[in-house]
Design brief:
By secondary structure, the chain is mainly beta. The chain has one domain (about 1-335): Methylamine Dehydrogenase, Chain H (7 Propeller), CATH 2.130.10.10. The chain is about 5% helix and about 40% strand. It contains two helices and 28 strands. It has helices spanning about 1-10, 195, and strands spanning about 10-15, 25-30, 35-40, 45-50, 55-60, 65-70, 80-85, 85-90, 100-105, 110-115, 125-130, 140, 150-155, 160-165, 175-180, 185-190, 200-205, 210-215, 220-225, 230-235, 245-250, 260-270, 275-280, 285-290, 295-300, 310-315, 320-325, 330-335. The strands form seven sheets. Strands 1-28-27-26 form a four-stranded antiparallel beta sheet. It has a four-stranded antiparallel beta sheet with strand order 2-3-4-5, with no helix packed on it. It has a four-stranded antiparallel beta sheet with strand order 6-7-8-9, with no helix packed on it. Strand 7 and strand 8 (about 85-90) form a beta hairpin.
């Protein structure tokens, strides 16, 4: 722990990259051995060198806001992106600027607001926005068979926008989903149909904004809500009567060890066996915090980089560096003892036309709402085959 604290306290700005045109940087993904990808509010996906942040190219093709980017775990030269245009697209990282190499389509009237790729790179899952005022869907495709259509869908477990889809890092069949309906669901897809697959429903009491698998064997689940709540559950107790909740704060800013305006997200640091939560101030200041059953503890503070709200971050364990992106259009790399190589005056380049996060009035549910059988988008009930 002392080594982690020293590393995070010693982080300073080493590299800075800005696009030519102002745009929000919304989400980021890091290839295990390759480049860095960033999704932007101008509907583009941009590639950067992971060490220098040098731009390598950009992809365009989505007709709606990009809901995220994911690299496969294997050695594939693909990058996946999901979009409100109803598609997940795969791009060839060897050919920046090329058209999508693969496209996975849903009903064109459905807007995808989250997605993820399972371990083993076999299954894609996307969460839709609310449909017909009370339904939302989890859609599944075989990632090995682009163009083959949907494998199936779940339709009963959420009643509003599915804002997060997160596969377990080590179990390809374990899936966590979060929604603006306030529910966080955990599924075992190997059990088949939706009702059998649903293992647990946790109530965040608010609109779920970010999920993170964490803990030594990834048996814990962190949820950050859109109104800055923080909830940590231990899923080891699914087969017992013991409570799942480890820690909960309806507004984590009130308990934070440093002044915060918002929470960015969480990451499990495998080597240090610690859960890192990042929060910030509207002026760009960032605070790095440890989260456990005792709450939040300050690990380090980053100043002099961003000039506006930070929307995404990554921890590169191999390089011991932190990468952050935000509404000031800046992509920054922080490293121990780093000295910024690009001089000049820092200025805000906040986009005036950038995507704004859509939130809805939160809904509270004590348990999963029972609904009449709904028909899935492909006409089949929600069984997923692997």
């Amino acid at each position: 722990m002392e080594g982690l604290e020293a590393t995070l306290r010693g982080l300073s700005l080493a590299r800075r990259s800005r696009p030519e045109e102002p745009t929000y940087l919304l989400d980021a993904a890091l290839h295990p051995t390759g480049p860095l990808a960033v999704s932007c509010s101008d509907l583009s996906i941009r590639l950067h060198d992971r060490d220098t942040l040098t731009p390598l190219g950009a992809y365009r093709g989505h007709g709606g806001p990009v809901s995220g980017v994911v690299f496969p775990c294997g050695s594939s030269d693909l990058l996946y992106s999901g979009s409100a245009d109803g598609t997940i697209r795969a791009w060839d990282t060897r050919r920046p600027g090329s058209d999508a190499a693969q496209t996975f389509r849903s009903d064109p009237t459905y807007s995808l607001c989250s997605f993820d790729l399972s371990g083993g790179d076999t299954l894609l899952c996307a969460g839709t926005e609310q449909v017909n005022e009370e339904d939302s869907f989890l859609l599944f495709w075989d990632a090995r068979k682009p163009g083959s259509g949907l494998l199936g869908a779940y339709s009963e477990s959420h009643s509003d926008d599915i804002t997060q889809v997160r596969f377990h890092p080590d179990d390809k069949d374990r899936l966590a989903t979060g929604s603006t309906d306030g529910l966080v669901n955990v599924f075992d897809l190997s059990r088949g149909g939706e009702e059998e697959a649903l293992l647990a429903t946790c109530n965040s009491e608010s609109s779920a904004g970010a999920l993170c698998w964490c803990g030594g064997t990834y048996t814990r689940l962190l949820c950050l809500s859109h109104d800055q709540g923080l909830h940590l559950w231990d899923l080891c107790h699914l087969d017992t009567d013991d409570p799942l909740l480890v820690f909960s704060a309806p507004d984590a800013r009130a308990l934070a060890p440093a002044p915060l305006d918002y929470l960015v997200g969480g990451r499990w640091l495998e080597h240090a066996q610690k859960l890192l939560v990042v929060g910030g101030r509207n002026d760009g200041e960032l605070h790095l915090m440890e989260c456990d059953e005792g709450g939040l503890g300050l690990l380090g503070t980053l100043r002099g980089g961003h000039t506006s709200t930070v929307r995404c971050f990554l921890w590169d364990a191999a390089g011991q560096t932190l990468i952050t992106g935000g509404e000031d259009s800046q992509l920054l790399l922080w490293k121990p003892g780093g000295e910024e190589l690009m001089g000049g005056k820092k200025e805000s380049r906040k986009s005036q036309s950038a995507l704004r996060l859509k939130t809805r009035p939160r809904k509270k549910h004590g348990c999963r709402r029972e609904k009449e059988a709904a028909q899935t988008p492909d006409g089949n009930r929600g069984s997923v085959g692997n």
